[in-house]
Amino acid sequence: MSIEFLNELEDKVQALITALENVRNENTRLTQELEQRGGRISELETENDQLKGEIELLKENSNGQQEKLNITTERIQGLLARLETVQH
Questions:
Q1: What is the pLDDT of residues 10-63, one digit of tens each?
Q2: CA-to-CA distance for 18 and 5, rounded, in angstroms?
Q3: DSSP per-residue letters across 14-27
Q4: End-to-end Cα distance, the chain
Q5: Is 0.70 surpassed by the pTM of this model?
């Protein structure tokens, strides 16, 4: 084996080692990014659940208010009907 061949082989091995280090660094970076995004997803899911709960409460309140409005409307209609009979 010639010295030139060994030098080329050493350069190629060094290039492979460098490439491996780069891939490992990229893998670490991507793993960290994935963990951060996973945490953000969990936060968003929690917030989404809270908002769904708030929407449900608002719907219940709205339904209650609508029922009160319906009762009041019926009372007013009854009073108007009695008033019409008294006026005629």
A1: 999 999 999 999 999 999 999 999 999 999 999 999 999 999 999 999 999 999
A2: 20
A3: HHHHHHHHHHHHHH
A4: 124
A5: no
